Amino acid sequence: MNANAKDEAIEQQTSSRACQPPSETAILEDTQSLWHELHGLAYDRLRLATLETQRAAQSLVTMIISGVMIALFLSSAWLGLMVVVVVELIEKDVTLSSAILLAVVVNLLIALVLFNVIRLKARDLGFSATLRSLQPGPKPSEKGVES
After folding, report:
1. Is residue 129 domain-resident?
2. How confident is the prediction for the chain on average, in pLDDT?
3. End-to-end CA distance of the chain
4. Is-above-0.70 flag for pTM?
5. Which residue among 59, 70, 73, 135 is the one 20 to 30 A from 42 at the CA level?
6. H or E segment at 135?
7. Domain of 58?
8. What is the pLDDT of residues 13-67, one digit of tens each?
């Protein structure tokens, strides 16, 4: 019987603790603690996003500078190639002005082809399918009205 009395006493203590409502100060402390944790997590995420943005910006600047340098090197190589072609034409008894004119015409034709490629690819920059999917569909009452 002594063992039963101990069990009953333990149950009463446990049930009396579980039934007691938490005090207002405990709730306030828990709320403040959660708020500080949320603030800390938000700050950490924002700081991470800031650092990644800075890193991405530095990478973008490096890529742009490298691209400009590549364009300059390719332009000088192209000009060298055109000089070789003009010199070769002059050696084949073509006048200097005709050889230079031919090189200019070839460059303009290549530029025209590349311009058309850019013009055709520019259509893909408008996100037309995405924009169509974001537009609201016709109202249910309008579906039957269309003829």
Report:
1. yes
2. 85
3. 90
4. no
5. 59
6. none
7. 24-135
8. 655 555 566 788 888 888 999 999 999 999 999 999 999 999 999 999 999 999 9
